[in-house]
Design goal:
AAA_dom; DNA_Partitioning_ATPase; alpha/beta; binds magnesium ion; Rossmann fold; single chain; 263 residues; eight-stranded mixed beta sheet; 43% helix; binds adenosine-5'-triphosphate
């Protein structure tokens, strides 16, 4: 049964999409079966996976509105090695369209239910907003991975996100928890980075991934070729960091499974 993780932070440009694409490809490299869901009308994860967002027959929008089933919208990312549910600007309308349907918060969760056992991991790339799309992602997920830059304002936004996660856990999805916090575009030469890192460690303890993602130009270049960094330049520091993150995530999963009581 797949673990479903939303990659979320309402702050823009913190590395959500970069994390989603590169973590997906790294999990594939460790022989996991992965589905990436692009839930952002910007369609960046779609383009970064090598699929043209302008030429979609079906997209996640059609799945959410019931126009097609999930399998009909799926595409394979050649370079990433994972399945993709693509998105484009059409998804902007979903915010309004969903207002009229019943159980609007659970559309994605219900759509995923029949295919969850076909994957080991399902990663959802969220838009930079605490919108109905993000709520759908959080209701469908077991955990939230929060990418963030170590800057002062990052901490401010974080409490809003944590509050939203807690509210959704209480009202709609009791399974939901914070899976981990990921430091992105990390530059240890800046003293603020180290201060913020120490605060995150204090607040979130083991939830803070030990792996940090360095600022690395290969990570920024790879999407314009529709590739994860692992295909574009597998020796790059960025590609290696995301492989390490996949390893840490899988190890945590195993440790959690050991801790859980046997049924
Ligand atoms: N570790 C990194 N090193 C260098 N550049 C990076 C790194 N991570 C992300 N970037 C670049 O920073 C920009 C923002 O990253 P990304 O698109 O992943 O963020 P996002 O949180 O998904 O943004 P949005 O909120 O708009 O969806 C992109 O141009 C990306 O290529
Ligand atoms: Mg993004």
């Amino acid at each position: 049964m797949a673990k479903v993780f939303a990659i979320a932070n309402q702050k823009g440009g913190v590395g959500k999409t970069t994390t989603c694409v590169n973590l997906a490809a790294s999990l594939v490299a460790t022989k996991r079966r992965v589905l990436l869901i692009d839930l952002d009308p910007q369609g960046n994860a779609t383009m970064g996976s090598g699929v043209d967002k302008h030429a979609l027959e079906n997209s996640i929008y059609d799945v959410l509105t019931g126009e097609c089933n999930l399998v009909e919208a799926m595409q394979f990312s050649e370079h990433g090695g994972y399945q993709l549910l693509p998105a484009n600007r059409d998804l902007t309308a979903a915010e309004v369209d969903l207002l009229e349907v019943k159980m609007k918060e659970s559309r994605l969760r219900n759509a995923l239910a029949p295919i969850r056992e076909n994957y080991d991991y399902i990663l959802i790339d969220c838009p930079p907003a605490l919108s109905m799309l993000t709520v759908n992602a959080l209701v469908a997920s077991d955990g939230v991975i929060i990418p963030m830059q170590c800057e002062y304002y990052a901490l401010e936004g974080l409490s809003d996100l944590v509050n939203s996660i807690q509210r959704i856990a209480k009202l709609l999805n009791p399974e939901l928890r914070i899976e981990g916090l990921l430091r992105t575009m990390y530059d240890p030469r800046m003293s603020l980075t180290n201060d913020v890192s120490a605060q995150l460690k204090e607040h979130f303890g083991d939830k803070l991934y030990q792996t940090v993602i360095p600022r690395n130009v290969r990570l920024a270049e790879a999407p314009s070729f529709g590739m994860p960094a692992l295909s574009y330049d597998k020796q790059s520091r960025g590609a290696i960091a995301y492989l390490a993150l996949a390893g840490e995530l899988v190890r945590r999963q195993r440790a959690n499974a050991r801790k859980a009581p046997a049924l």
